């Protein structure tokens, strides 16, 4: 494609588009009379690794640190004649921490003092954010298992897993990034496994709505992974082994090291269990899973102005598709899974190279070419009844992103472009063992691509007011062509003395559609079930959001309310009674919610408390506009319903409350309680025993208890869903029919650290 060639050329000539990868720290140091102190030595260190950077203040007492990955840091200041000082602060990618530090005249006996955690509220961003550290992941029950998403669902409001897919803020489509580099994947309902092993994550920054123009198209959630780097290790390795019920194990071996200029981290993992996907009955049957993978992160600091970062990962997973063996069960009267013996292989590989060039303390360039391979192979047994259906979807994505940002007076300016070319190779087939239709096998090879450009300005109108405005332009080219120009504007207000932050946002988004296409015998089969196929257009969203952050003695309360109105809402549907899932777009959707998070300070003596709550309504209206549409369109059965009805994953109230605690004798414990008010009921009529609009509410509790034995050994025991509370979670027809929540799982974990 000519436009994509143009993008490739720009990779080597100027800045390209990117989400914000790094944060920064700006500060001013003054004496008790508020006179600037020049020449003071300032050092910033990672709170959990050996990474550090050093500078001195200029004549105005100013200092800058750029290219800092999100995370917790310690900043220390030394100047002759003044009392040394050290402060802790958290850096996020969307903004920089601005510090005003007063040094006291040195006493005769000098000693280092810690003044506490820096202001937790973020006055420079209208995006609600949650930052999760590797310690949070290691301590939270079940969160560090290879295929776990508890690091998200336990900390992020409105995030939950149902019908084996992560949903957030009422939608399916979320973006994964590594080091701020996007991992493109337009397929929906094709993959179950997560993008990256949680044990390979140093920090995870979760952004939920109200994105700046530099952040892309997935309205419902953006997960930016800061991977393990090796700066936290000196020729050290770690072996993690687990063993539990359902014959489960999640194991990993990792190595890392660093010098002044080079740091590296590499890992390999393997896992298996007799419990994988959410089953259609309480007792899992034919539900084993296994997988393996590897990860590597390499950072080279060529000089103070140039850094190179390489991230690569490969994973392979297999899932048996659970079924209900009793043909007389009420579930099988609505969706008969008793004759299925299916499985799914999933492969995912990703590589990204980032060049970070610092022109000056105020000007930064990022350039990041990437490649992503994704494959989902749904495989039946030949004698599946009534039909053995096959789906093999393979996507290749080649492209890149970059950004150029600078500060001019009161303006923080940024801009760039982003693009990728996609080649989709999909096979759909079916063997009809009930002789209801002719057998078929159809392969579809389609191509397309996305090109985007954006600009944004953060204008610091006053010390208490920041105005943010940006524009993003998208060109999508495949079987159809979409062009979208969408503005994003917002403001933050810092209330003096209280240090509360008010924020507001209004913006538009465009999400590129899947490239799925069907024709030939598959289309004939779809027609026989009163459906046709229309190429999908991208989802277009309009969002407004208002929020308030309240910091108090290291605690942070963050509340927001938002509304997202979607046209061509991306969803998924199956062809007839088969296991072939095709993406669809629905005419419209409306998601309204208010959310609340509460976090205690990380240095709290007894541990860290966290709470995430969402009150949400997710609804849809109108006919299906793309993908598998109702056919013939002029029939009475295809008349659109313009009234709003709940989406299949609509859950009005979701609450997570947790505590990661520290006890005497190097003992630690973690506890998490989850409450869900129940998902929408898709089958309220007999033979279903549930006749309400929503399925039963459900509450589960998880517990982990462990102990450190010196510097090398850590052992722990975790119990998930301690009470073994089982409910029908949802009745969406994906991956084997209905879905019960996870049963009780108990496992032990041992961590052994060693030098090599």
TrEMBL record:
Signal peptide region: 1-19
**Domain of life of the organism in this record?**
Bacteria
SUPFAM superfamilies, A to Z: Carboxypeptidase regulatory domain-like, Porins
Q: Tell me the InterPro entries matching this sequence.
A: Beta-barrel_TonB_sf (IPR036942), CarboxyPept-like_regulatory (IPR008969), Plug_dom (IPR012910), Plug_dom_sf (IPR037066), TonB-dep_rcpt-like (IPR039426)
Q: Does the keyword Signal apply?
A: yes
Q: Which family does it belong to?
A: Belongs to the TonB-dependent receptor family.
Q: Per its record, how is this protein called by name?
A: TonB-dependent receptor plug domain-containing protein
The organism of origin for this protein:
Silvibacterium bohemicum
């Amino acid at each position: 494609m000519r436009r994509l060639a143009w993008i490739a050329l720009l990779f080597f000539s100027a800045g390209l588009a990117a989400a914000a990868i790094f944060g920064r720290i700006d500060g001013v140091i003054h004496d008790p009379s508020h006179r600037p102190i020049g020449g003071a030595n300032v050092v910033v260190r990672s709170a959990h690794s050996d990474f550090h950077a050093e500078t001195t203040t200029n004549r105005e007492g100013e200092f800058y640190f750029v290219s800092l990955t999100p995370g917790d840091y310690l900043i220390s200041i030394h100047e002759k004649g003044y009392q040394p000082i050290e402060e802790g602060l958290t850096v996020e990618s969307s903004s920089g921490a601005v510090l005003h530090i007063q040094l006291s005249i040195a006493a005769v006996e000098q000693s280092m003092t810690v003044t506490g955690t820096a202001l937790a509220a973020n006055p420079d961003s209208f995006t609600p954010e949650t930052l999760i550290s590797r310690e949070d992941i290691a301590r939270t029950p079940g969160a560090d298992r290879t295929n776990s998403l508890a690091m998200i669902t336990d900390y992020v409001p409105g995030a939950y897993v149902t019908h084996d897919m992560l949903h957030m803020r009422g939608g399916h489509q979320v973006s994964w990034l590594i080091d701020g580099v996007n991992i493109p994947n337009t397929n929906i309902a094709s993959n179950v496994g997560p993008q990256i092993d949680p044990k390979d994550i140093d920090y995870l920054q979760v952004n939920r709505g109200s994105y700046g123009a530099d952040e892309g198209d997935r309205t419902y959630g953006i997960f930016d992974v800061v991977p393990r780097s090796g700066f936290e290790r000196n020729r050290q390795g770690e072996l993690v082994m687990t063993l539990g019920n359902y014959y489960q194990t999640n194991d990993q071996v990792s190595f890392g090291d660093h010098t002044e200029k080079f740091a590296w981290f590499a890992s390999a993992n393997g896992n298996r269990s007799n419990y994988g996907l959410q089953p259609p009955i309480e007792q899992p049957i034919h539900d084993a899973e296994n997988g393996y993978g590897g990860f590597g992160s390499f950072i080279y600091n060529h000089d103070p102005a140039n850094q190179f970062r390489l991230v690569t990962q490969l994973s392979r997973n297999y899932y048996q598709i659970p079924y209900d063996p009793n043909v007389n069960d009420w579930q099988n009267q609505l969706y008969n899974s008793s004759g299925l013996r299916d499985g799914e292989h999933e492969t995912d590989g990703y590589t990204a190279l980032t060049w970070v060039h610092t022109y000056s303390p105020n000007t930064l360039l990022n350039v990041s070419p990437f490649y992503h391979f994704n494959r989902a192979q749904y495989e039946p047994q030949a004698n599946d009844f009534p039909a053995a259906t096959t789906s093999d979807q393979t996507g290749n994505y080649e492209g890149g992103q970059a950004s150029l940002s600078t500060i001019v007076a009161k303006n923080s300016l940024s801009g760039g472009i982003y693009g990728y070319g996609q080649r989709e190779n999909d096979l759909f087939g079916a063997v009809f063992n009930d002789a209801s239709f002719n057998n078929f096998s159809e392969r579809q090879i389609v191509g397309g691509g996305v090109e985007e450009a954006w600009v944004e300005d953060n204008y610091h109108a006053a010390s208490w007011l920041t105005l943010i405005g940006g524009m993003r332009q998208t060109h999508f080219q495949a079987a159809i062509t979409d062009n979208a120009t969408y503005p994003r504007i917002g403001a933050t207000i810092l209330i003096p003395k209280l240090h509360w932050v008010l924020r507001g946002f209004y913006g538009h988004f465009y999400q590129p559609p899947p490239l799925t296409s069907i024709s030939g015998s598959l289309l004939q089969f779809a027609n026989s079930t009163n459906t046709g196929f229309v190429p999908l257009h991208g989802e277009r969203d309009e969002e407004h959001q208002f929020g308030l952050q309240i910091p108090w003695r290291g605690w942070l309360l963050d509340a927001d309310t938002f509304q997202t109105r979607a046209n061509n809402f991306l969803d998924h549907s199956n062809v007839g009674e088969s296991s072939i899932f095709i993406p669809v777009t629905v005419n419209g959707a409306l998601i309204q919610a208010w959310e609340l998070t509460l976090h205690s300070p990380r240095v709290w003596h007894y541990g860290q408390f966290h709470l995430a709550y969402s009150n949400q309504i997710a609804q849809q209206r109108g006919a299906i506009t793309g993908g598998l549409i109702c056919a013939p369109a002029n029939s009475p059965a295809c008349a659109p319903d313009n009234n709003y009805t709940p989406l299949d994953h609509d859950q009005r109230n979701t609450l997570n409350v947790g505590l990661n605690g520290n006890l005497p004798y190097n003992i630690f414990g973690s506890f998490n309680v989850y409450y869900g008010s129940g998902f929408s009921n898709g089958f309220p009529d007999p033979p279903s025993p549930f006749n309400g609009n929503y399925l039963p509410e459900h509450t589960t509790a998880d517990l982990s208890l462990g102990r450190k034995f010196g510097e090398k050994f850590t052992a722990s025991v975790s119990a998930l869903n301690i009470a073994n509370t089982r409910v029908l979670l949802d009745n969406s027809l994906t991956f084997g029919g209905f879905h019960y929540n996870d049963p009780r799982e108990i496992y032990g974990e041992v961590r052994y650290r060693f030098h090599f």
